[in-house]
Amino acid sequence: MSLGNSGKSITKQCPPINLLKKEVDDMQKVFLSHSSADKRDYVSLVADKLIKNLGPENVILDELTFQEGRKTIEEIEDNLECTDLFVFFCSENSLKSSWVREELFKAEDLWNANKLQQICPIIIDKKIKYDDPLIPEWMQKNYNLQYISRPNKAAQIIQQRMIEISFERHPRLKERNEIFVGRNEQIKNFEERIDDFEKVKPLCIVASGINSIGRKTLLKKCIIKSNIKKNSYPFSSISLNYDESIEDFILKLYDLGLTRELDIRDMMKQPISDKIQMAVSIIHDIQNQNDILFIEDSGSIINHDGVVAQWFVDLLENPQIKCQVTFCIVSKFRLKYFGDDVAYSTREKVFHFGVDELSKVERDGLLGRSLRFEGISLDLEDIRMLSGLLLGFPEQVFFTVSLIKEKGIDYVRNNTYEIVEYNNKKASVVVRDIEPDSDKISFLALLSGFDYISIKYIYDIVEGEEQYINYIDEFLSKSICEYIGVMKEYIRVNDTIKDYVVRNNFPINPRHKNNICQSVNTFLENLSNNEYDIPEYLFSLKEALLADEKIDAKYLLPSLYLKTMSDLYNRRKNKEVIVFADRALENEQYMDGRIVFEIRYLLCSALAKLKDSRFKEEVHKISGADYRFLYGFYYRQIGRFDKALEMINESLRLRPNFSKAKREKVQIYIGMQEYQAAKTLAAENYQNYSDNPYHIQAYFSCLIKSEKSKENNDILLSLIKTLENINSDVSKEMTLRCRAQYEAFYNDDEALALSFINQAIEMNPSIQYARIVKYDICERFGLIDDMKEIIQFFKQPEYKVKYQNNIIIFESIIMAKEGDVEKATKYFMNGIRDYTDEAKDKFVIKLNKYDNAAK
Known about the structure:
With 855 residues, the chain is α/β, with parallel strands linked by helices. It contains 44 helices and 12 strands. β11 (481-484) and β12 form a beta hairpin.
C-alpha cells in the first residue's frame, strides 16, 4: 500500500509527549527460524523491520548472531535458551532443511519445559497448507498456521507477539470456547446442503441471530463436522459495521496479508465496478489458498431490513469467483431479500440459517459441561435452580459459571437477578464490576473508541504499563473483547458493551488521550510509508478529520466521512456535519447506495436540528418510513408537534418495529406535556433498552407526572437506582434531575429537591432540561419569583425561539396561579404553536385546576 504526505500536523491541539518505551536492553529476544533460500525475498525484509523497531541485539538471525561459517548446534541451542519468541517461517525449503529441523526440535523441548514463552509459525509458501504432513504434529495442534504473503504483515504480527509475551493471555479461553452442545438440526441441514450434488457449492454461509446466541461457534462446528476443514484450522476473521461498505471490505481483506501488494488508494473516486474487480482479485488469492474467512457483519452486507448489499450481490455474480465455501457471515440481521433482479443461481451461492436460543436440554448440557470444565461441583438442587434461570443464550451460561467460580454459589443464590438480567442488561451487568475501578473503566472507554485495534498500538498508547495489558486479558475472559484478524492480532470490544460505554460517555485517561493525539500527529507526518496496519490507519484518518486536518482525498473512504459525521452529530456540531456531508456527496456516483443513504440521513438530521429550510430539499431524496420519520423529527424541532405526531405515526405504520420512531413519539408526547399518552410507549422502550439512560429518564418523566401510587413509587426508585449504577457523566446529571423530582413530588422536600436540581444545572449549564424541571419544582412549592426568573432566562435571544412554547406554558401557569385563569387560558390558546387539540384541552383543564384550588 503506497501512501503520501498530508502536509499538516495537529500538534497545535495537543502538547507533544514522548511515549515511554521499554529500554532495548529490557526487551525480549526473537529467534527467526528459516531456510536461507527464503531469506532474500521474505525473511530479510521482515528482519529489517524488526531490527529497526527492536534493535539488532534482540533479533536472532544467523547473519547477525552467528559468526560466519561457525553456526553449530551448540550455538543454536545457546541462542534458543535466551529466546522469548521463536518464529518459524514455514515453507517447502524450511521444512526440508536439516538446520531448521534441529531448531524445531529444540524449540519443542524448550516449550515443553516451559522455557520458551511463545512460538509463532508463519507460512510463507503458497504450496504449504496448515495441515501439511511435514509440519510437526505438535505445532499443527497448538498453533494457528496461516499463510501470510507480505513481509510487512508478518513483521506486524511478530511485534504483536513480542508484546503479548509481557502478559499472560487467558490460558483456557480457547478450550472454554470450544465447548459445544446441540444444534443438531442446523448441522444436519448444513451437511445436506453441502452434500447436495444437484446444486453448486455455496460461496457464502450466513448464520443470523441476536448477539451472544452462538452463531460463530455453530458455523465453525458445521465447517469441521462436514470435513471442509480440520478442527485445527485457523479461521481468519474481520468485522464490518453498518457504516462501512465495499471499500472497508477491501481494506480489511487486504490487511489479512493473504494477497499480494495492491495499490488501494483513491477509492473515494473509483467507480464501484473497479472496486468490485479489486475485491475479486483479493478473493481469488484467498480461494487459491482454500481459506475460509469469518465476517462479523453488523449491517454492512445484510442490513436491518434483511436486504443484501448490492456490492456483495455483484461479487456473488462475478464469474471469476469460484463456487467454494469462502465466507462465513455472522450476521446481526436475518437474510430476507436479495432483490427482484437477482438470479436464482446467484441466490444458490448463499446458504442461510437462523440461530435461535438453545433448548432446555441443550442449555442444561452446556451448563453441565461448563461446570465440569471449571471443576465446579454443585448439588442437584442448585443445578435445578440455575437451569430455571437460563434462557438459552450460551454467553449467559458462561457468565453464570464464571460468577460461581469468582464469587461462590452462596453469592449466586442470593443474587440470582444478575443471571436473569444478563440477557437484557448484558452491558450494564458486565460493566458493573468494572465501574468502581476508574482506571479499568477508562481503559474500556479507550478500547471502545476503536472499531478494532492491535495490541501493539494500545501498548504504545498506555506506555507499556502492565496493568492495562492485564486488563485486556480480563476483558477477553469475560467476553467483553474478542480477537479478530488472520492470526488474532487485533482485539475488538463486544458491540453491545461498546454501545453502552460510548453512550454513557465514560471518560478516557487524559494522558492516554494525549498519547492518541501525538500518535495521530506522527501518523500524519509519515503518511507516505506503508507500515501502518489498517485499523490504525482508519482510526488515525478519522481523528485527523475530526481535528479539521486537510487530508489528501486519495487516502479517504466514504465510511470515514460517515463515521466522522456521526461523531460530530453526537457532539452536537451540526454545522460541521453538513460540511462533511456536502464534501462526501460530491463523489456520490462512486459510492455504495447504502452509504449515500446514511450520509444523507445524517445530513437531514443535522439540518432538522438547525431548523434549516434546506431540510425540505434534501429529505425528498429519502423515501418510505425513513422519510416520514425525518419529517416528524424536523417538525418536533420547529415545535409543530401535531404534524410531528402525524408523520411519526405514518412512519410506524410503514415499519411497525421502528424503534427510533417509537423513541421519537415519546419525545413528541412529552413535548406536548401528554405524559399519560407517552407512558405506555416509554415503558416499552425502557423494557427493550433498560440500560439506556435516555429511555430510563423518559419513562421516569412520564411516571413522575402520573398518579401518585405505591407501584409508581417503587418503579421510580428502581429507575433512579438504575441510573446511579450506570455512573457516567450523562447518567449522573439525569440522576440529579430525577432525584430532584422525586423529592419534590413524592417526599414534599423543597430544600432537597432544589439542592439536587441546582447541582444538575451546575453540572451541565449548556443543556436546559434541568431548568425546565426546576420550573416544575418551583411551581410545586409556589415559588413564583423563582418561576419568573427561569422565564426571564429563556427569554434571552439565544433561547427565546427554541423555547417559545415553554415560555407560553410557564407564563400561563403563573397567570393562573395568580388568580386569572381566563387570561391564562386565552394567552395559552393564542400563543401556543402546533399542539394537538387534545393536548391543548388537557392543558386548559390543568389551568382550571388552579382556579378551583384558589376557590
